[in-house]
């Protein structure tokens, strides 16, 4: 998959080179999450990833290039999960409920928080020019929800009074805020409650199939 934020994997990498680069990014994301951007240095990353200084500099000559690649790597993982078949493109309320149930049932959710949100909270504090890439990653995540809601609207599953963009923002915000509070409390309850409340609100726009059938059968006004 191409890097989500526009930071592309260098061309002509061998399979071994791609594996090395991915290993560096995985360890860089973990170090940035635990230590912060400024406290993460090349020596720590080199030891963690098991690479030489020349290898690290070859793939990521500057800290900004590394951080941009970490954002893209983490975003790709999150977005690929949400775009998978599991949630059926979020084309109905059951898909949103399954999404909420997955995170509410994920045993480490309250310890880890949101991987992309936690990364963003560390990176946003720096003076690195990466804000657009972070915004793009979250925009794409929100758009997955919005596109699903728009599809539901076209199928008549939710009312035309619903604003898919607003509802998508609500769902993403509930997840981010709930994840943070769950992480602080070390208890999944805040995340579970936030997602349930957000989905319950979306459900207020649901249209009953029985009502739709009655509307179709209603004779035209003379």
UniProtKB/TrEMBL annotation:
Gene3D superfamilies from the UniProt entry: Tetracycline Repressor, domain 2
Residues of the HTH tetR-type domain: 18-78
InterPro entries recorded: Homeodomain-like_sf (IPR009057), HTH_TetR (IPR001647), Tet_transcr_reg_TetR-rel_C_sf (IPR036271), TetR_C (IPR011075)
Short name of any one Pfam family annotated for the protein: TetR_C_13
Keywords of this entry: DNA-binding, Transcription, Transcription regulation
DNA-binding region range list: 41-60
PANTHER family: HTH-TYPE TRANSCRIPTIONAL REGULATOR LMRA, TRANSCRIPTIONAL REGULATORY PROTEIN
Listed name of the protein: TetR family transcriptional regulator C-terminal domain-containing protein
